[in-house]
Amino acid sequence: MIPVFEPDFGEEEIAAVVAALRRGEISGSFGTAIKEFEEGFAAFCDCRYGIAVTSGTTALHLAVAALDLKPGDEVLVQVPISRPRSQSSTRTPFLSPSTPSATPGIWIST
Predict the structure, then answer these.
(1) How is the chain split among helix, strand and coil, in percent rounded to 5?
(2) Cα distances (angstroms) measured from residue 64 to each of 4, 24, 61, 79
């Protein structure tokens, strides 16, 4: 199996999680951690807004919704590696997801 991603959490990340737990910030409805993250991410990306979401799947759904796609538009999606989330975010009654072919064993779309 080819490793796709290995998390890398250091002491700073662990301390931030512990601090948020101690403050009782376990959801986005109160506290400052999420707002600070969104503002910092927006600044990092040189954008007006940054929005934290609950998952990568949610982010993909929002990204597709923001594209102003029209009924029948074809959407090219990556070849699913372990979870077909990129395809599920385009599976609506009016979009047509299409997976480009890939060369077996080298993970590059052709």
Answers:
(1) 35, 10, 55
(2) 23, 33, 5, 17
Q: Which helix (H) or strand (E) holds 90?
A: none
Q: Where are the domains of the chain?
A: 9-52, 70-110
Q: Can you name the residues that pair with 75 across neighbouring β-strands?
A: 97
Q: What is the pLDDT of residues 44-73, one digit of tens each?
A: 999 999 999 888 888 888 888 888 888 878
Q: Report how far residue 51's alpha carbon sits from residue 58's, in angstroms, rounded to the nearest whole number.
A: 11
Which tokens is 60 given? Answer: 């993909």
Q: For residues 94 and 73, what is the distance between their CA atoms, to the nearest angstrom?
A: 8
Q: Is 0.90 topped by the overall pTM?
A: no
Q: Where are the beta strands (DSSP E) in 66-105?
A: 74-76, 96-98, 102-103
Calpha distance 71→80 (Å, rounded): 23
